[in-house]
Give the backbone structure.
Amino acid sequence: MKDLVSYWKLDDDYMVYEDNDFKVIKGFYNHKHQSNNEKVLGICWGDYPKSRGKLSPVVITKEARDAFLNGLLSKLSDNKNKREKILNAIDFFNN
């Protein structure tokens, strides 16, 4: 994922779910470099939303994150590869 705002830090296994241009990612977020990096779930679609010309995924709050991931998990119960990525994301947030 290129041209990402500097508040986001991603590792090699950042993609949780992808459906056409809609993407769910996981990574570390440090709002305006004011605090420690926080583990977050983010969403974006295509090259939106942007901030100053760079992709700026929407941060999903911790409260909504679990429901979001559980919803994806139940939807993808028959797709082993996609299910594994979501389980990895759940582990990421639990560790």
